[in-house]
Write a structure and sequence with these properties.
This protein is mainly alpha-helical. Helix content is 72%, strand content 0%. The protein has a single domain, classed as Four Helix Bundle (Hemerythrin (Met), subunit A), CATH 1.20.120.
């Protein structure tokens, strides 16, 4: 392991620990029922687009289509539909409806997507696979914490709560 890899490993561990501490303080509770109809619709739209891009990214990774991985990673990073479509009242409603950790998890997914785009640009298949796996873990962790009313099969997945 070189110095850069060691630094990344330490940083990843520090982020995981900080997320564990902050996530542990909040009981899992579905956020959907607390959202306005508009916010729920925007969030579902964003998640459907991310899921579709993730599926296409998987195919691109296993086929060595680095340019497509870069493009899809960037598309996921830029897919802040919620952020782009909100009025000031919507922002206030969102902040009142979701815990801070929910927004942090969403932000982390978008950061990972930027890393995936960079791995595609660098034609680094190993980094693509590792980043894609972390993105998948983040989706499952968030859904098992905040969307158990829609994804009952993820309820009780406490091993992912500390992601």
């Amino acid at each position: 392991m070189n110095k850069g890899q060691a630094c990344r490993a330490i940083l990843s561990a520090a982020i995981a620990v900080s997320l564990t501490w902050s996530a542990g303080a909040v009981a899992a509770e579905p956020v959907g029922p607390r959202l306005t109809e508009k916010l729920r619709g925007l969030l579902v739209k964003e998640m459907v687009e991310i899921e579709s891009a993730m599926q296409e990214t998987y195919s691109a990774i296993i086929q060595g289509k680095h340019d497509e991985v870069a493009q899809k990673g960037q598309a996921i990073h830029d897919s802040f539909i919620l952020e782009q479509s909100l009025t000031e009242q919507d922002r206030q409603d969102l902040m009142a409806a979701v815990p801070k950790e929910f927004l942090q998890m969403d932000e982390r997914l978008h950061q990972l997507a930027a890393s995936l785009a960079e791995a595609g640009k660098q034609q680094d298949s190993q980094a693509q696979v590792e980043t894609f796996n972390r993105m998948t873990e983040s989706c499952v962790a968030c859904h098992s914490r905040y969307v158990t009313d829609r994804f009952e099969g993820l309820e009780g997945q406490s091993n992912l709560m500390s992601w």
